[in-house]
From TrEMBL, chains A, B:
<dbReference type="Pfam" id="PF13545">
    <property type="entry name" value="HTH_Crp_2"/>
</dbReference>
<dbReference type="InterPro" id="IPR036388">
    <property type="entry name" value="WH-like_DNA-bd_sf"/>
</dbReference>
<dbReference type="GO" id="GO:0003677">
    <property type="term" value="F:DNA binding"/>
</dbReference>
<dbReference type="GO" id="GO:0016301">
    <property type="term" value="F:kinase activity"/>
</dbReference>
<protein>
    <submittedName>
        <fullName>cAMP-binding domain of CRP or a regulatory subunit of cAMP-dependent protein kinases</fullName>
    </submittedName>
</protein>
<keyword id="KW-0238">DNA-binding</keyword>
<keyword id="KW-0805">Transcription regulation</keyword>
<dbReference type="InterPro" id="IPR014710">
    <property type="entry name" value="RmlC-like_jellyroll"/>
</dbReference>
<keyword id="KW-0418">Kinase</keyword>
<dbReference type="InterPro" id="IPR018490">
    <property type="entry name" value="cNMP-bd_dom_sf"/>
</dbReference>
<dbReference type="GO" id="GO:0006355">
    <property type="term" value="P:regulation of DNA-templated transcription"/>
</dbReference>
<keyword id="KW-0804">Transcription</keyword>
<feature type="domain" description="HTH crp-type">
    <location>
        <begin position="143"/>
        <end position="217"/>
    </location>
</feature>
<keyword id="KW-0808">Transferase</keyword>
<dbReference type="InterPro" id="IPR036390">
    <property type="entry name" value="WH_DNA-bd_sf"/>
</dbReference>
<dbReference type="InterPro" id="IPR012318">
    <property type="entry name" value="HTH_CRP"/>
</dbReference>
Length: 239, 239
DNA sequence: CGCCTCCTTGAGTAGCTTCAAATTATGTGG
DNA sequence: CCACATAATTTGAAGCTACTCAAGGAGGCG
């Protein structure tokens, strides 16, 4: 039995989780760098991330680094959009050691046929992904490196906090600077310099697989961060 | 009675359109610059775009220009994601004179309760939007100005062609250069220079409200364009 | 015609990239 | 546990891309 993770799946109530979780008996594991699914694969199941970090990547030629177009945290579906779409436009890559619960599309199909409200909740969860995509478009199009990286780290903080229920001043952080670069549209060299700037501003520091947040308010200000676009289940934000 | 537009709604079959269209008796019009709905508004209906162009914009302070995070073409829903989300994270702005068909969420709710397949089709249409968002993240993060604008124009061409069924070498184009700038994360000055480059390369030219495509293959190459991410209904592409 | 908006062009510069090398972390086998 | 190999980060210097500021031109509309 899969115990209910926090985070995105908090959009589901206990009854809804009670219906969904029995369909996710098969658990799986991936190592850092494993490709969970390839662009264009025909998928017959989706995965709920239980632990670790997964990226959606768009490959760009063999020489260039691929772009990270999305990041998934524990409690989020990694590829729920494959249920209606069947084939994805991007790769799904495990960035850390990850653990996932698998749900077959056939099972999901039958379950959702009998529960319109649950279907709408899953729809909503994919729409929150889309809202985050829009924010990434804005961030990578309209923000300068310092604000961009700060905002990225704010989002990491917020989603990680939601996933592991409870705000901390130091969180596990297993992204490499080149991962941040791929997600923010910068070079890893410039990410390095930008993280130094954030450190020297007294906002936060990344080292030893930990993100230490020294001044959350300052970091939010520097990244012009407003969490509304994350549509957090239990938050009382404006949206 | 709303006659079925081409484009995104081609994902629906005739029967499904037959069920949906009677709910869209109210038609509306907007002028260029009209704000169709504001960020955070509580929405009780969604709009299908019949003619014109609509942008989803994230406002960024009062001084700076707002970022265009998405563009909607005829045959696409402008804010279908408001059905599950209720409140949106962005403004919806009419860029041209537009005509829309309105569908109340209550009506949609009842219709979808009785038709799981139709519900899944509408879900799918919002997921295509999300796929396009991901492409925009990639484009604005990883492409240089020339490729970026070329790719943007390729997308415009493809979606416009789908909306008005039939490939043409000259299409109506009512975006200003500052709109292209807001959508691509460039300045309007640089868009002007970039369009000149594309013109001098013999790819395409924008003038008098028309986009003239002189060398579609060359434009696609310059923008590294692959339409798979658009999940066109009747296309036989790999995805 | 005069006004306003949009587009174009030029000059100077900031921000980020590229390339390359040095330094520090991480992991592995003996 | 150390020595080594590999991967990740940091720093420096030089260059290019795109931005900013500013002025001039073109077109549309009252």
């Amino acid at each position: 039995m899969t115990s209910k993770p926090s985070g995105m799946v908090d959009h589901l109530n206990a009854e809804q989780w009670g219906k969904l979780s029995p369909l996710m008996m098969h658990h799986g594991h991936f190592a850092p760098g494993d490709i969970v699914s390839h662009r264009g694969d025909l998928l017959d199941h989706s995965l709920l991330l239980l632990d670790g970090l997964v990226a959606r990547k768009v490959p760009r030629g063999q020489r260039a680094r691929s772009t990270v177009v999305a990041l998934q945290f524990p409690g989020e579906f990694v590829d729920l959009h494959a249920f209606p779409l069947k084939k994805l436009d991007h790769d799904v890559v495990s960035l850390t050691g990850t653990s996932v619960a698998r749900i077959a599309h056939d099972d999901l199909h039958h379950l959702l046929n009998g529960d319109v409200e649950l279907a709408r909740k899953l729809w909503l969860m994919t729409l929150v992904d889309a809202s985050i995509h829009r924010h990434w478009v804005m961030r990578n199009s309209a923000m300068r490196a310092l604000a961009r990286v700060a905002n990225f780290l704010c989002e990491y903080d917020a989603r990680m906090t939601a996933a592991y229920a409870g705000e901390r001043d130091s969180l596990p952080f297993s992204l490499r600077q080149s991962d941040i670069a791929d997600a923010t549209g910068l070079t890893s060299v410039h990410v390095s310099r930008t993280l130094r700037d954030l450190r020297e501003h007294g906002c936060c520091s990344v080292s030893g697989g930990q993100l230490a947040i020294h001044d959350r308010a300052g970091l939010h200000k520097m990244g012009m961060f407003d969490a509304a676009y994350l549509y957090m289940p239990q938050s009382g934000t404006a949206l």
